[in-house]
Specification:
Layout (H helix, E strand, L loop, with lengths): L7 E6 L5 H9 L2 E8 L2 E9 H9 L4 E6 L2 E12 L6 E8 L5 E11 L10 E4 L4 E7 L7 E4 L8 E3 L10 E2 L6 E7 L4 H28 L1
Parallel strand pairs: 1-4, 2-6, 7-10
Antiparallel strand pairs: 1-3, 2-3, 4-5, 5-6, 7-9, 8-13, 9-12, 11-13
């Protein structure tokens, strides 16, 4: 998929860095951020929570930061989550020149209908959710699409076989297994359990005969 349009994020500088000021900041619907890199001084700031989270959820890896009348491009370098893992509580932004080459992990998106999945018990496994890639900062794709429309039972796709967008290079092991279709096997325990269940009517029948003898 093509690179995402770069959204603009408004950042307000902040000097109170303790836990209480940070908590008040979040209560006001803002998110603490740190901006660093390019041999410039590290800056602490805050952004509107919805503005930055919407940009990240839409697939943006690069944002244009506006602060004190100055604009600069930044790579979304790291996200910190709450203990439940369902809410962002801090963002690290690294200054970047849009023409420079960067390395980062991009989500994998599975597309297509695999004919192998029509077979009874067939499963598509995709053990990795992201691929590490290298490209210019202004060419970062939202996702890496993995086309499974030609996969049959027993087929595998490795990282090196995935077609990447122009200008994007794989930074992962080419032999990394990304997708595999196989038929699920019934465990022996499950077979034994089914056999025991099928035998239960006989046991019940014997119990019934013993009960009749006792009555007579």
């Amino acid at each position: 998929m093509a690179a995402h349009a770069i959204p603009t994020i408004d950042v307000e500088p902040r000097n109170d860095l303790g836990s209480r000021p940070t908590r008040r900041l979040r209560d006001q619907g803002r998110l603490p951020v740190v901006i660093y890199g390019h041999q410039q001084e590290q800056m602490h700031g805050s952004v509107d929570y919805r503005q930055i989270v919407d940009a990240i959820r839409s697939g943006s890896h690069v944002v244009e930061v506006k602060c004190n009348g100055k604009a600069e491009s930044c790579l979304v370098k790291d996200l910190q989550w709450n203990y439940l893992g369902n809410k962002v509580i801090h963002v690290d932004l690294a200054r970047v020149d849009l023409s420079e080459k960067v390395t980062l992990a991009v989500p994998i998106e599975i597309v297509g209908n695999a004919p192998g999945l029509k077979e009874a018990g067939a499963l598509l496994e995709h053990p990795v959710a992201e691929l590490s890639i290298s490209c210019r900062a202004d060419q970062i794709p939202d996702v890496i699409q993995l086309d499974v429309s030609a996969m049959n039972v027993g087929d595998m796709i490795h990282a090196g076989e995935i077609k990447l967008p122009e200008g994007v290079e794989l930074d992962d092991d080419p032999e990394l297994l990304v997708a595999h279709i196989h038929v699920a096997k019934i465990k022996e325990e499950e077979v034994e359990e089914v056999t025991e269940e099928e035998g239960e009517p006989e046991v019940i029948g014997k119990g019934g005969e013993e009960s009749d003898e006792a009555e007579s």
